[in-house]
Amino acid sequence: MTGGRAPWVLLGPACLAGALALLPLGYLAVRALERGPGFAWSVVTTEGTAQLMGRSLALALAVVLACLILGISLAWLTVRTALPGVRAWAVAATLPLAVPSYVAAFAWLSAVPGLAGFTGSAVALTLVSYPYVYLPVAAALRGLDPAHEEAARSLGLGPVATFARVVLPHLRPAAAGGGLLVALYVLSDFGAVSLMRYDTFTRGIYVSYQASFDRTPAAALSVVLVLMTVGLVALETRTRGRRRHARTGSGTARPPVPVPLGRMTAPALAWCGAAVSAAVVFPLATLAYWLLTGQRSTWDLPRLAETAGATLGAAAAGALLTTALALPVGVVAARYRGRAAELLEQAAYAGHALPGITVALALVFFAVRYVHPIYQELPLLVCAYAVLFLPIAVTATRAAVLQSPPVLEDVARSLGHRPLRVLRTITVPLAAPGVAAGAALTFVVCMKELPATLLLRPTGMDTLATRLWTETGVGAYADAAPYAAVLILLAAVPSYLLGRHRT
Amino acid sequence: MTELRIEGLTKAYGPDATVLDGLDLTVPAGSLAAVLGPSGCGKTTLLRVIAGFLRADAGTVTVGDRLLAGPGTHVPPERRRIGIVPQEGALFPHLSVARNVAFGVADRAARRRRAAAMLDLVGLAGYGDRMPHELSGGQQQRVALARALAPEPALVLLDEPFNALDSALRAGVRADIRAALRATGATAVLVTHDQQEALSTADLVAVVRDGRIAQCGPPHEVYTRPADPWVAGFVGDAVLLPAHAAAGTATTALGSVELRTPAAVPEGTVILRPEQLRLTEPGGTGDTGGTVHGATVTDVRYYGHDAMVTVVADGVDTPVDIRVAGHSPFRPGDRAGVQVTGRAGFHPGRP
Predict the structure, then answer these.
(1) Are residues B32 and B102 in the same domain?
(2) CATH class of A33-248+266-273
(3) Model pLDDT, residue B327
(4) Which residue of chain A comes nearest to B79, CA vs CA?
(5) Is the complex ipTM more than 0.85?
(6) Which of these, A400, A414, A385, lies nearest to A331 by C-alpha position?
(7) DSSP secondary structure string for all residues of A136-160
(8) Contacts of A415 in chain B (CB under 8 A)
């Protein structure tokens, strides 16, 4: 099954998924230009918009710089040095990936209310997003052949000069790719900046949408934000492409001798300890504090259970739809080459570049005008989840299908089975574990989703994330804590299963 | 019992990438043909075109009286009734051995019985409940054959099926597979780059070069009467000597050699096999009484069952390989005599 055109039984549903993924992008543009390009331009060029853009970019720049320092230093310490307990530190350094930005914001805001604003946003976002730099840099360090460094040392360079002139250039593509992902995360983030009351694009769009009946300004602002994030994704894709070339020939490199830290051991341990404490221990400790402080009598247990149930239901529906849509796209991307397959895969990845708030806004506009019955109903929210998280499910499906050799499908066809039957009896059963893992991951991210859920949830329905956001927003930290705790516990189950699946 | 007939088959991946170039091949019903060629000669493409995974640009593929590929015709793989045995077996890892074998049997009621019969045929009766990863490489390969044979295909294609097996196992699995194919009377095409395998396994050897059949015939014919020096060198070790021919005899640096067929042109190349040369004591007359030519031994390689002695004959620039049975008393630097036995092929043009 190499080359050739995909059969219609695959291509049809895959095109449907691609169209759904592109719908928000297209419709956003239509709405923004509805009152003429002149009006959209006047919204975009107001002083307020320029301020929003300046604030968004300033925050992104600060967070990226902090993440680079934190991520690269932790990667070097955990991969290349004789740091005591190095394996535990390596695991701990990736844990913040599981902390939603609004939980970090809740922790810092409830402990140090004075942080609200730029500082608080920057601290919270840095501590949840530095693993995006840490992970690729650590991988690049592991792939770096120590022979290069030995050659540099033998040519007369000291350890610091070797790090600067040999190691750092090798890490640059990985660090740049990670930095761009962090910038994307910051520009798309709604939870942390809205709780910290720092006006960025996402918060500006939300406020503009809530404040006025005229929704064209919100749409115009969304288009600007999407243009910024799409630009970042394009840059990130380019650095990724180059990184692949840079990595050739390092497959069986000798493991490097860990650098002894000597007198620097204590400061290094303190640095790692501070990072992990701030990013993981502190939010958990704050949460525990508020759980213990809040009187048990004030806990509204029936409401908590109802919210948890609603969250699970919506996330399950989201994971189900996303996985179903991702299946044909993933199979086509894994098994067929050509223009159509390529376009389809790229369309499915659109959600990667779209901030949740813009997807939600586009679907609101679309539903209000064309499918009013589902406006503020569950199906619309589930569709938003599918658009946002299709990339996760497609990546998982594609990798799972690639695991089994295409010759198995050739054999099945030569034994008299038609393409659809081969898909059912061979391709899908073999890919099932990987697809299920992708579904579990999608389930977790659906549960944690905030901005689209805020805008699209049915009237009267709350998820754990929206309750946490609302309570924190009015300073009711003790009331917010139970929702955060349940959210972390529920998200931990599939995450734990995923971890076991990988090993 | 069905015959495979391929005519004028052409396949190109681009303007300068012609892989099959008007290839013709006929495999008689019930016989096992080996398609032999170096890597990149187009043999895998040929297999995929026959199976229907690739569309030919021109030419026809006919099995029995059924046209499978031709102008305006492309029967999809699932309707061709052609079984394939891929490299390393490619068993479905999520199905038991019995379910692998029964996979292509359309008649539900017959599946169990048919799977058992096929496993019995390949000598794996009772293995039906195992999973593929519980089998050795050779067993997996035999299950793959059973799976291909179960739907009673018109033709079976084997794609270098013994490649992944270690050499000790290879001969046994090869013999088992040949016996199973014989027992069912299936027509089969084996693709390989291993000349030993082709010569020892097949009824018919088709040597492929640059997308065409360079020579096709029974193994002994291809070996003893190669169509040209390239085929001679590819299917075995060859000694090529420039020669001047007159009628049925050619004169070479090693003396005169009798030709199998009279030469049409005077100048050309004589093709001999190393075992046609006999190594004697220097100056001896040899036991057949032919002329003995003086030579110097330059290298001796010992293989156990035989040895290859390289000599430079007096008045000849290129070294010549001679195969001798068992241990050779000669050492590099020794003087020896060389004598040609049997008849030789003659090809116009210099080597």
Answers:
(1) yes
(2) mainly alpha
(3) 76
(4) A416
(5) no
(6) A400
(7) HHHHHHHHS-HHHHHHHHHTT--HH
(8) 78, 83, 103-104, 147-148, 151
